[in-house]
Design a protein that fits this description.
With 360 residues, the protein is an all-alpha fold. Helices cover 73% and strands 0% of the residues. The chain has three domains: 87 residues; 74 residues, no CATH class; 103 residues, Serine Threonine Protein Phosphatase 5, Tetratricopeptide repeat (Alpha Horseshoe). Helix 8 packs across helix 9 and helix 11 runs parallel beside helix 13.
Length: 360
């Protein structure tokens, strides 16, 4: 009995004790189970690093582009400032203090940190103050009458103070006719200022583009034009050139007024037509011309630009015609003409005479 119990106990112990193979299998299974989360974490960490690297690369490229653009703008402003600084120094050296003041003020406006600009501007202001306070020295010729010239000079100062630029030009011309030697350097500076601003007024307010261009050309005899004056001069010249091709070459009209329209759309001349009006009509007439030479697709493009600016029935009709011409003939054959069947009328038989027997 005891022997049987011992044998049963041995069998139970053998069943409960795992084998070495089962132990290794459990260990290896446990390793696989515990290694899976580590693999997922590694993949997620790699993706996160790639995403961070991409964001850093994009940010660096973006900021690099911004810095490059700022550097280019800085260099452009520095170039313009250097040019006008040189103009101001030339005017200062020649005693044209008013012109020097205008040039240096423009430098301060676009590039405040320009080297020595504060000192030179202060120097110009000191010269202007001293010249205004200085009393004229007694002349050796007491018979010289300067009352007329002095009165005209004071009147010109008053005109400039009131921003009556064109009146100031006329007054200064009278002063030169009265006494060419009176306050020569100051009058030169006043003439530049009056001519420059009168030219701007003629172009922007009066519609006298040719007159404005003429006054700009006179102002350049005293000192170079500033940046804004150069822009007004260029736009007016584009307008005048484009108008010279009116009803002669519509492609040139479109070429020039496209530029004026982009920069100064409401510029107008003595006719009262703005750059918008001339550009719109030029597009329409150029499109009409292109249709006459069967360039329908380009004509449609020009006509649609005109129609987008302002709707009118004629341009709309031309757009439709150009569109049809641009599409070309359709591939579907035209329907054949149907013929109406005619009813045949039977002809009546021609009566024939039956032959009679001979001798009857």
């Amino acid at each position: 009995m005891a022997k049987e119990n011992k044998e049963k106990t041995t069998e139970i112990d053998g069943a409960q004790k795992p084998s070495q193979e089962d132990t290794q299998s459990l260990k290896s299974g446990g390793k696989r189970k515990s290694g899976k989360p580590r693999y997922v974490r590694a993949v997620l960490l790699g993706l996160l690093l790639v995403l961070v690297a991409a964001l850093l690369s994009g940010s660096l490229g973006y900021f690099s582009g911004i810095n490059q653009r700022k550097a280019e703008e800085e260099n452009q402003r520095l170039t313009i400032a250097t040019t006008h600084y040189r103009y101001g120094m030339e005017a200062l050296a020649s005693g044209n203090y008013e012109v020097a003041r205008i040039q240096l003020e423009y430098v301060i406006q676009i590039y405040p940190n320009f080297p020595d600009i504060t000192e030179k501007y202060s120097e110009v202001l000191i010269h202007l103050t001293m010249s205004e306070q200085a009393t004229p020295a007694p002349t050796a010729a007491p018979t010289r009458d300067i009352q007329g010239a002095q009165a005209l000079y004071q009147q010109a100062q008053q005109d400039i103070s009131n921003q009556e630029w064109c009146l100031a030009v006329d007054t200064l011309r009278d002063l030169r006719d009265e006494d060419y030697t009176y306050e020569t350097l100051k009058v030169d500076g006043m003439l530049w200022t009056a001519l420059r601003n009168c030219a701007v007024k003629k172009i922007t307010t009066d519609g006298d583009l040719e007159g404005g261009l003429y006054y700009f050309s006179l102002a350049k005899n005293f000192a170079p034009l500033d940046h804004d004056a150069i822009n007004y001069s260029n736009w007016a010249r584009l307008y005048v050139t484009g108008a010279s091709y009116w009803e002669v070459d519509w492609s040139q009209v479109v070429y020039y007024f496209n530029q004026v329209y982009a920069a100064f759309p409401y510029m107008y001349d003595s006719s009262g037509w703005t750059a918008i009006d001339r550009y719109r009509i030029g597009l329409r007439e150029y499109g009409r011309y292109l249709m006459s030479v069967q360039d329908y697709c380009e004509a449609e493009k020009q006509l649609r630009l005109s129609l987008d600016m302002q709707y009118d029935e004629e341009t709309s009709r031309l757009v439709d015609e150009a569109y049809i011409g641009c599409q070309g003939p359709t591939d579907e054959p035209a329907p054949a003409e149907t013929q109406t069947p005619t009813e045949e009328v039977p002809s009546e038989p021609t009566p024939t005479t039956e032959p009679t027997p001979e001798g009857s």
